[in-house]
Design a protein that fits this description.
- It is built from ten helices and six strands.
- The protein is mainly alpha-helical.
- The protein has two domains: 29-94, FAD/NAD(P)-binding domain (3-Layer(bba) Sandwich), CATH 3.50.50; 110-233, no CATH class.
- Strands 1-2-3 form a three-stranded mixed β-sheet, with no helix packed on it. Strands 4-5-6 form a three-stranded antiparallel β-sheet, covered by helices on one side.
- A hairpin with a 2-residue loop joins strand 5 (119-123) and strand 6.
- Helix 8 crosses helix 10 (225-233) and helix 9 (212-223) packs across helix 10 (225-233).
Amino acid sequence: MLLEDGTLVEGTVTIWSTGAEPQKVTAESDLEISRGFFRVNEYLQSTSHPNVFGGGDCITIDKYEKEDHFFPPKAGVYAVRAGPILAKNIASFLTEDDLQPYVPQSEFLALMMTGDGSAVGTKFGIAFTGKWVWRLKDYIDVSFMHLFDKYYLYKDFDNLGYKEKVTDNALFESEKAEIAKETESIKWKVAQMTPEDAGKSLSVDEDHEEFWEQLFVIDRMGKDPEFAEEAVKHFKPTYQIY
């Protein structure tokens, strides 16, 4: 890739990553804005119009607006986590009940596919890549989409259509229970792991495809900061990510 100043950047894949930008409609509204986005409080409620709520990439939370970088980051995971709070607070506002604050998580697992059957992931200050990362991303994404899939929301949809709705995501929860049963031994193995073994698990070769062990390692690291800190010290993959 040749830059305007004549610099030649060598690489096999070029990715244009622009990030989130404010939309013109935001500035044209009479809602209070901050850094180009709708300004809301910790309840995801407009700071100028209390009957307006917002979430996801279109907002700046006043509590964090003075941070050097956007927080929460403009990433889908934060919008998804804010969704239930947003819905509840809209309902509570209408019934004049107390609102629930939205507390964003400090970090998240970022996953990006590379178009070749692999993906790149980052968390805990490290980056890993391989086929297993793509399969992990696919599992997470498909699991999320099942929450909106007609075959998971309605019983025997092909024959009954929308007649019989499933309650409490029963089909999805049943599938999760079946997966939990199949992966129980792997989860137990990870629970007994030393930080050194955990670091080695995340350092698997790029051609490695199974992801359950790595998923449980990442989950354990997220729940145990001391374990995560030690595991990172033993993360030594054979590849390099620039």
